[in-house]
Every structure is written in structure tokens, then in C-alpha cells.
Amino acid sequence: MKVYFTGNFGEGDKNMQEGRLLDIKRVFRCNGHEWLVPAVYCFEEGISVDICKRIPITEVKEFFEKWPRTERIGLTMEQQNERRAADPFGGHCKFDLHVNGKKVEGEGWSGTSWYGTDDEREDEDAAELLEAYELDRDSAWSFYRARFFRPEDAEEIKTLDMTITAYADTVPCGCRFTSVVGCAPFDVEFTHPVTRDKRCLHILSCTHASMDNQEMKWNLDKEQDCFIYPEKYCKLEYREATPKASSGAVMVRDCARSDNPIRKEPSESDCSVAVNIIGGARGVSVLTDFDVKTACSAMHFEEQQQVEWYVSAEVVPFKPKKVRLL
Length: 326
Hints:
Helix content is 10%, strand content 42%.
């Protein structure tokens, strides 16, 4: 297998020098899975680390039984967040490398997967990795190739340490509630999706609000301004009643999607530009003022008198894992 410093799996600048192989074969466990670093490649430009995560076939089957690939397009934002957090192939992490005890700058990473049950959709890059590293084809695998720039003062690599750090997932709590504009304060109780501890939100108010069209089209050139945007939304103010010692930030988001922009009458302007409006199922930006938080609903052309919201929690799947490679 030829490995170059640039490009994704199976790619790279063929005019550059191939990497010098360091046969590592370091096995460790992280977040309930077996991980393997089979090889490190050294270049003049830097260092590449190949990382493999083994996933049991039963886990893959259970995931796709609940989240069929054919149904991904129609998922709500709430369902998309739930699916993303549960995806065993998800790349919700970053990799850091220390060379001779000194942290080096990362260049990025590439990823691919072997599903183990998908014979008709065999990925050529994943198949090459399986063969090169003699991996078990009866398991599913996630592959990462993390690239790092070589420090100028490291003429000889004496030690290599890698740290895997998880990013936070936004995990729905299975709790929905409805607020009416002008409603009196009320409480919403829910259960944290991971810790299972009981939590409570104090809903303080729900009011109408609007955003000027000039703010909605801030990212478009005037010559490409071919749309009218929804301006009206609802603003929910709330406070988390749970003590700060409890884990995980809590967020409230609209279950509905924003209205699509309306195209203006044809003119001499170029209206071929694609438009993504801020808002959507996530609403406008979530603001924070000390302990009082503000959630903004999806954007609409007509004022809404009530909004259905869902509660999510930020969850970090695992603590940072440090591994000595060399």
C-alpha cells in the first residue's frame, strides 16, 4: 500500500515521496471499542498515523435496523442529532500527536469505513486497508488517517504519543413541550439521556420577535438578492433549575423547520444562487445572558401563536485517551 502525506485514502501527490513505514501495531480500548494503530508513516513534510476502530457486526445491524439509510433524507433535526450520536462509524473526535514530548501541529485527517455486511458497496480504500493490515473481515471498521507536520527540531523520533479527544454530541432527551405566546411561567421535567438524572427547566416567557430581511440576507451580494425571507419567530426564555454540578449543557430547539424563502419576480439579477437561511429546525442563534437562556424558533412569514420544542443535552462520549505509540 502506497501512502503519501497529502490527499485522502487512495489519493495523494504521486510526485511526492512515499512514507517510510514504522510498524507499530498498538492495540488499546477506548469508549467500549477495540482500537488499533497498525502503522505510522514518516515523510519530509510530516507524519501520518493510521488508526482503526473495530465495531462488532451486531452493533452495526442494530444501528441500521433503527436508522435505515433510505430514510435519512426525511429525518427531522431532532432525529438527525439522535442518529449522529448513535452512529458507531461517526468521527466525533480529534487526534493530537506529541513527538519527543512536544505537541505538533495537525494537518487534518481522512476517514473511511468497512461495514462488514455491505458486500455490494465495498469501499476500495477500506478493502485495501483491510488487506494491508490483515484485519478481521467479520468485523466492521472505521479508519482514520491523521496527518501532522513534523517539528523542525525533531531530527530523530524517539517517542510518539497520541491522544484521542471526543467532541460533544447533541443528544435529544426524548422530551417535547409546547409554549404559547404570552404564557405564564411553567416547569418542564426531563431525564438526561446518558446520566439518567432528573433535570428541570423553568420556562420564563414566550414572545413574538422578528428579524429584518437585511439581516437574513447578509451573506448574499445585492445582485444575487432574489428572495424574500421569513422574518417572524418566537423567543423562549428559560433557566435550568438543575444545580450546576450536574453534567452536560442543555439546549432547547424548535421541532419545526423554517419557511423556505420566496423567489422574487424575475429580473435582470442573477437568481441562480442557492440559499441557506439561518434558522431552520435549530432556530436562530441561541443567546445566553447569565443564567437566563434564549431559544429562538424557526423563521416564518406569519406569526406563530405556539411552538413545539424539544430538549437536547451536550454529551461528551468519552474522556481523552492517551496512547504511547513509540
